[in-house]
Amino acid sequence: MVVRTVLSDAEVDRVFHALADATRRDIVRRTLADGVTVSGLAEAYAMSFAAVQKHVTVLEGAGLVTKEPRGRARIVRADPEQLDRVRGLLEEYGRLWRGRIDRLDSLLTGDDEP
């Protein structure tokens, strides 16, 4: 079974790279319900504004968040459509591995039907 996805291999790489960092996962979580300014995000972390800005840029490159100008501020919002695509990808991987485990279980128990 091959995992089919609406995301290209490069997009999948960017998404997993972006979500590999705990701060970036937290930024996505914080921006799910409502937009937050980059300054507002920076206040929540023990790092510089520039460091938070870099995290947001990585997330934006993966399509997980968008930045919307509002006056001088930039509002960061999670992109629910991209998150749905990522969820779908993870569900496909889950089906793939459950199928493999079921086939392995059948082989180990001697069942003829996988």
UniProtKB/TrEMBL annotation:
Source species of the chain: Curtobacterium luteum
NCBIfam families: HTH_metalloreg (NF033788)
Stored SMART domains: HTH_ARSR
Pfam families in alphabetical order: HTH_20
Official protein name in the record: ArsR family transcriptional regulator
Residue ranges occupied by any HTH arsR-type domain in the UniProt entry: 4-98
Molecular functions per Gene Ontology: DNA-binding transcription factor activity
